[in-house]
Amino acid sequence: MKHGICHLSIVPIRKENSHQSELVSQLLYGDCFKIISIKKDWVQLLTLQDEYSGWIDHKQFKDIDQKEAEKISAVGAQYSSQLVDFVETEDSALISIVLGSNVAGANLLKHTFNGSFSEKVKDKSSLIKTAYSYLNSPYLWGGKTPMGIDCSGLIQMIYRINGYNIPRDASQQVMLGETLSFIDESEPGDLAFFDDQEGAIIHVGLLLENYHILHAHGKVRIDRIDQTGIYNFDTQQHSHKLRIIKKMI
Description:
Helix content: 10-25%
Number of domains: 2
Low-confidence stretches: none
Largest sheet: 6 strands, antiparallel, barrel
Radius of gyration: 18 Å
Strand content: 35-45%
Strand order of the largest sheet: 15-16-17-18-19-20
CATH superfamily of the largest domain: endopeptidase domain like (from Nostoc punctiforme)
């Protein structure tokens, strides 16, 4: 099975093989994947780090050896730690990259990266520092960058940059970790999940100190949390109903 690597800043992953199709996620620079199928000008992929499936334009990736792809995506991963940085190509052109891009594949792509990056597993307290880097990023369904991000993409990227791979969607993330009975049992870095009237998980946020939560709702913001849910400072009312609290690490 062929593999690919994202050699561009950000590439949209679509639900179907069309530019008009729903954005379900994004590839960031250095993300690797398996090629599942090819349909005209579109490639169906399965990402290596979180096994997320979708379609990308066939012009927006480079072929890569399977062993190299797996190495870059696992123990060798190195995530850019600045909101925006760049790599330099062979012909001295610059490619902008965003926070959380995997620069471990830069040499393979014959690119040069001289910026700062994060690698290996970090202490749980590092999650909070990373989380604040995304503060005020606009909400974007399917987004994973400081230029636009959704609630579960935010949590995935915060954990990924600190060496912890968790699934892409909130409905998948909630299946992991240890369930806590009360907010008082939690600590900064734990996750809170929220459901709709039918009981489906629709939202996730990162718990902070003193009953606060960082989450993506309109923008990445900080609000209060209690046993009922998230209390929005702007609207002066609860915006999300708490379902469960999970200790992931």
